[in-house]
Design goal:
Blueprint lengths: L1 H6 L1 H9 L7 E5 L4 H12 L3 E6 L7 H4 L7 E4 L5 H10 L4 E4 L6 H6 L1 H21 L6 E5 L24 H20 L3 E6 L1 E3 L9 H10 L5 E2 L6 E2 L1 E3 H13 L10 E4 L5 E2 H11 L8 E2 L15 H7 L7 H17 L4
Parallel strand pairs: 1-2, 1-4, 2-3, 4-5, 5-6, 6-11, 7-10, 8-13
Antiparallel strand pairs: 9-12
Helix pairs in contact: 3-10, 5-7, 7-8, 9-11, 9-13
Length: 344
């Protein structure tokens, strides 16, 4: 708790001044994931009545280990089950939906495309259909997308009017989810917003195949970090609380002109290579002696991906609050507590 509170001291005043979420009835899918855990915490801190969809009970999830889950209403089930989603929205009289639930690992999607399509595509249209059925209840829907939805393009940065052109299983699943959200807006008037972020990092990400948590774990245990690519792939790296603030900003603005039915990019607009990120972590953790192992065997991944956030700045008034260095320091501190076994 101390690490989190210290890193987010400036955010506390913003929370105290916000009343928009007080008594809102909010449904969050993907609540046990990296962004979901911190989003739920922020929502309950702001006074929202939060319902979370939980498929697997993972005691190491930040949502559970922090105790935040005890401040929520839990619905057990899967995105692939329409009845579960419809019941959650109806019985809890939900007015706001954050759809973060998905199979999010590129390597897993490559090995298991069917399961990925079921969760990410069927799960999205199931949720949107439940929102359509209960349109009198649901006033705003935020769908979590990704820069991967754009696919590989000749000109960067990505801007929102580029078409979704995913080619690999995970990328295609996100492209499809984006198109489904657009279909429900244009056909049924569902007040949906699509949010696209780059690589989100922060405490609580237990997917060790990702570069930030995987590198921190290796360095903490005195091992050389492993890089699956050649280390020169470039990405945006967005601190988790900046992503959370982007999601909230999109939801709060959905009733304003030019927001519903739109997509918004959230990014620091400073792409970094994998080698840069690993180098920064080695410096921060005092392990410059541990040179990375470069496997150069990445498959089904786009080499360079980064986003323009101009639209989010202009229409939503969003911009990142945390520098890469501050976010990385807070992240490393979280994992040090996690690995040491200290209580959050």
């Amino acid at each position: 708790m101390g690490v989190w509170e210290g890193a987010l001291e400036g955010m506390a005043m913003m929370v105290m001044n916000s009343r928009f979420w007080s008594d809102r009835r909010v449904f969050v899918t993907g609540a046990t994931g990296l962004v979901g855990s911190w989003l739920v915490r922020e929502l309950v801190d702001r006074g929202a009545y939060v319902v979370v969809l939980v498929r697997d009970w993972d005691p190491q999830s930040e949502l559970i280990r922090s105790g935040t889950i005890h401040r929520t209403h839990v619905v057990h089930g899967r995105l692939e089950d329409f009845g579960t989603l419809e019941r959650a929205i109806n019985e809890h009289e939900v007015d706001t939906v954050f759809h973060l639930g998905a199979q999010t690992i590129v390597g897993t999607a490559l090995r298991s495309p069917l399961a990925t399509f079921e969760a990410n595509i069927r799960g999205t249209y199931n949720l949107l259909e439940a929102c359509r059925v209960h349109a009198k209840l649901v006033q705003r829907v935020v769908v979590a997308s990704s820069d991967k939805a754009y696919g590989e393009v000749a000109t960067l940065p990505y801007i929102e009017d580029m078409p979704p052109l995913g080619r690999h299983p995970y990328d295609v699943s996100k492209s499809c989810a984006d198109l489904l959200a657009q279909a429900y807006y244009h056909t049924y008037g569902t007040r949906v917003v699509v949010v696209r972020c780059g690589n989100i990092f922060g405490g609580g990400d237990l997917n060790w195949s990702r570069i930030v948590p995987g590198t921190i774990r290796s360095l903490y245990h005195g091992q050389r970090p492993v890089i699956r690519s050649d280390g020169r792939y470039t990405r945006d790296y967005l601190y988790v609380m900046d992503a959370v603030m982007g999601y909230l900003a999109a939801a709060e603005a959905v009733g304003r002109p030019g927001v519903a039915g739109e997509a918004f990019n959230f990014a620091p607009e400073r792409p970094r290579s994998v080698l840069e990120v690993v180098g920064a972590l080695r410096e921060l953790m005092g392990r410059t002696d541990l040179e990375p192992v470069i496997l150069n065997e990445a498959k089904a991944e786009i080499r360079d991906q980064y986003l323009s956030a101009e639209k989010a700045r202009t229409i939503l008034g969003w911009r990142p609050t945390y520098s890469f260095e501050v976010g990385l320091k807070a992240t490393v501190d979280w994992y040090k507590e996690f690995f040491s076994g200290r209580a959050p």
